[in-house]
Amino acid sequence: MSALFPDRADAAINARAQERLAADKQNEAALGFDGAWTGHPDQHEGAISQFPAPNQLGVLHTNVRRLDLTPSPVGVGAVTAAGTRDAIRTCIEYRFGVLSGLGARMIKGYDKTGALIGNFMEDLATDRIYRLMIAQRVRHGVMTESGVKISAALVETWFNEELEKILAAHDIGSATADQYKRASVWSQQMIKETSDLKSEILRTWKYPAAEFAKMYAPHEKVHPSDKLRSLLKEKFANRLKNPSQSFLHTAGAYDAMTASLLTDLGFEAIYASGWQLAVAHNMYPDIGIYPSHMMVDLVRELVRGIEGTRDRHFYDDGGKVLNTPPIFADIEAGFGGPTQTFTLTRELIRSGVGGVHLEDQDPAERTCGHIIAHHNVKREKVLVPTNKWIEKLIAVKAAAQASETNLVVIARTDAVDGAVPGGRTGSVSHAIDRALEAASLGVDVIWPEFNNTDLEGPQEFAEGVHKHYPNQMLGFNLSPSLHWGKAKQEGKLITNEMLGKMGFTLQFSTLLAFRTIGMALESSLKGFHERGIDALADLQLSEIAHPNGEPRTRMHQKFAGTDRWLTLEKVSKGA
Fold first, then answer.
1. Distance CA 463, CA 456 (A)
2. How many helices (H) and strands (E) does the chain have?
């Protein structure tokens, strides 16, 4: 593959690159090859035109002379100061790319006057080859054709001079300049490791505790359950004096990436959504048919997303510590009774949750929270008797006691639209009565599931509960299944402050992430399916020009913390 790449913005460079490419491919065609490897779309036509169609199977090389490459090759080119400098400059530029989240870069070179020319695609292979070449020249004291001995001190001088030329050639800020300087230092360290003769004799190892300490954010000292409870109480206390701070609102997460983004953006808590788990990991509806242990696995994945984001920030931002948002999870206990609920709760606590919610729908006939009609026919949710719901809530509290945690217990009731078969029909008053029994047990939050965006139902519920339990915190599902957009168009959209003032302290959207990613992903994939590379180009342009700033996932290697992991590998080797 030709490394001399075209440049659509520079006609002179483009012409030179295409001329060199054509000569290179003519040589390959003359050797009998049928085709060639290119690395840029603009090279395709020029490369293909050099080869006869369809192939050259008749071209045989029966008298090929194979060079003896041992003990030392001849005629392979002179060792020059300019060549060594070129390798040094490429190492700096490539390492700068790595620190910026890139794995391969278009790197320009200098001409004899010091002007930048050329467009070379360089990747890890080039970087390794150049580093080893420089290290070999230092290690063996290789002489240039002009009689200059290449030493470690001389290489350091050339690194400094090439770095200054790079900085002078670019209009960059101090942050980018610091990144270039860091790239130069890192490259020199890696070359020194290879060129140092001491590397072949017995080394004295010392565990680099201080260096490792820079790579990992300190663990949260407060248990997730204590942190979640403290946050909720603080918000609840603000409901009258400061409504804008009276609610803890967040969105559901269904993988490490969504947990990472929620952490990165500063959300104070994260909801492990059963609905999103059901569809994103199984393509099941959320009607209790996914294995209950999957929520434990999901919580562990969310914890990894949180930890990875905090570690990346801590390393990249020089010791800045991100908040650790506590997780509260859907504890769909399936068809088990209190014993399964107890066991599942303990496993969730072990996995790292700060709270769980448990509902009163009958698992055997459970339906999604907002499906109250099927084929335009009213479908009332089927509830378990209140005492069965309370039994499971008691099992949740028992598991918290057994685990010596202050687990936040969230009791969800679907009694607004549900009933025990043959019993009382669904209504707000029905939900209030059930909520009062849960409140008597001492649950932390009571979540009534509503099916519309009106304020009357939540207000009636809050007043009914607070009449008997004035300090009972409430929860509200800001589900995209409800018509918030229509309410906004009609000027009837309620606010977080309104709900917080009524005591709905815990506010969360089960499906915001799923719906948002689904819409964006479908649109992007549809474009890529129809337009291929053109759609990919549009994606990159929209990332750069996004009104809210470039998305964190644009630099995907940086998002995953590649730089920190590479440093971890380096430090582990004693470098």
1. 11
2. 21, 14
Contact 276, 253 (CB under 8 A): yes
Buried b (16+ CB within 10 A) or exposed e, 209-234: eeeeeebebeebeebbbbbbbebbee
Task: Please report which residue ranges of 338-483 form alpha helices under DSSP H.
Answer: 338-351, 386-402, 428-441, 456-466
Give 69 or 319, the one with higher predicted confidence. Answer: 319
pLDDT tens, residue by residue, 69-114? 666 666 667 899 988 998 999 999 889 988 888 777 767 655 545 5
**How high is the pLDDT of residue 364?**
75
Q: Under 8 Å CB-to-CB from 395, ≥6 apart: which residues?
A: 338, 339, 341, 342, 345
Percent of the chain residues topping a pLDDT of 90: 59
Angular region, 516: left φ>0, alpha ψ -120 to 50, beta rest: alpha
* Dihedral angle over CA of 494, 496, 500, 505, nearest 10: 130
Q: Residue 438 in contact with residue 475, Cβ under 8 Å?
A: no
Return the CA Rg of the chain: 32
Domains present along the chain, CATH in parentheses = 1-10+20-58 (no CATH), 77-202 (1.20.1220.12), 246-518 (3.20.20.60)
CB neighbourhood size of 99 (10 A): 19
Residue 345 confidence (pLDDT): 96
Q: Where are the alpha helices (DSSP H) in 467-574?
A: 484-489, 496-501, 512-531, 533-544, 556-559, 562-572
**Both tokens of residue 374?**
């099927």
Q: Which residues of 124-138 are buried (b: 16+ CB within 10 A; e: fewer)?
A: eebbeebbebbbebb
Which single residue is written with the structure tokens 């003359």?
A: 30
pLDDT bucket at 465, cuts 50 / 70 / 90: very high
CB 250 within 8 A of CB 273: no
Q: What does the pLDDT look like over 436-445, one tens digit per residue?
A: 999 999 999 9
pLDDT at 471: 97
The answer on pLDDT for 372 being more than 90 is no
Q: What angle do CA 371, 261, 498 make, to 5 degrees?
A: 55
| CA neighbor of 196 nearest in space, from 140, 275, 113 | 140
Answer whether 34's CB lies under 8 Å from 56's CB: yes
Nearest CA to 311 out of 442, 216, 384 is that of 216
Where does residue 318 fall: left (phi above 0), alpha (psi -120 to 50 degrees), or beta otherwise?
left
pLDDT of 374 over the 70 cut: no
